[in-house]
Amino acid sequence: GAGVSQSPSNKVTEKGKDVELRCDPISGHTALYWYRQRLGQGLEFLIYFQGNSAPDKSGLPSDRFSAERTGESVSTLTIQRTQQEDSAVYLCASSLAGGPINIQYFGAGTRLSVL
Amino acid sequence: AQKITQTQPGMFVQEKEAVTLDCTYDTSDPSYGLFWYKQPSSGEMIFLIYQGSYDQQNATEGRYSLNFQKARKSANLVISASQLGDSAMYFCAMRDGQGAQKLVFGQGTRLTINP
Fold first, then answer.
1. Which residue from A42, A59, A101 is facing B50, i.e. has the nearest CB?
2. Using CB atoms, which residue from B50, B101, B105 is nearest to A43?
3. Whose CA is closest to A69, among A88, A56, A59?
4. Cis peptide upstream of residue A8 (ω within 30 degrees of 0)
5. Above 60 in pLDDT, residue B31?
6. What whole-number distance in Å separates Cα of residue B46 and Cα of residue A106?
7. Can you name the residues that pair with B23 across neighbouring β-strands?
8. Backbone phi, psi, residue A64, to 5°
């Protein structure tokens, strides 16, 4: 079956503009995660959705960042008034709910460049 | 707070040799999971292997094995018979057992396999 799909693969924007990043999880996966990876760094957790529960937003770096998810399908990460420090690869992952292992499967990411 | 430390920014190994990538972790939670991911130049994160804190045996998946030393809080990845296609970034990650689903990642190790 299809893996996690993210679009666009690359996004170049000007400082101050808003951007929307999209994630299509693996079908049947109820959990969805967003991470940020700055150049040469590990991944930083941003937000986690699980079914109809309130999302875990503890990793969002500022109120310029927000995310939505419709049911158990597509999620959109929105960054308002982009800044140069927002330049990074944004990775989405999905997983099956429950279970002790809960492996997260990742998409290829969206590379965001803020000029 | 959880923390993952990968002390080797880069490793160079001859093809067909075995290689060990180091990972140490810090958590106060007795229940946790440890993961290794591979990130080739294409950018996607590929799940390799998982070790639970209560697992009695070290995890193995094909050429990958995990040298889990709980008392030392280390979870080193061993790749046997390395291949040119193993060249990539490798990330160690941890998830604790208290319901938090996010992964905490280390800074990664860049592995280069020489022919």
1. A101
2. B105
3. A56
4. yes
5. yes
6. 7
7. none
8. -75, -15
pLDDT value at residue B52:
92
DSSP, residue by residue, B19-63: EEE--EEE-S-SSEEEEEEEE-TT---EEEEEEETT-SS--EETT
- CA-based nearest residue in chain B for residue A49: B101
Whose tokens are 């419709």? That residue is: A70
The reply to whether A43 touches chain B by the CB within 8 Å rule is yes
Contact: A104, B47; criterion CB under 8 Å: yes
Looking at residue A96, its pLDDT comes to: 87
- What is residue B84's DSSP assignment? G
Let me know: does A76 contact A21? Beta carbons within 8 Å. yes
- List all residues 6 or more positions away from B45 whose beta carbon is below 8 Å from its beta carbon: A43, A91, A93, A106, B37, B38, B39, B91
Interface touch B102/A108, C-beta < 8 Å: no
- Residue of A5, A11, A10 whose CA lies nearest to A32: A5
Q: d(Cα A19, Cα A17) in Å, to the nearest integer?
A: 7
Q: What is the pLDDT of residues B37-59, one digit of tens each?
A: 999 998 889 999 999 999 989 99
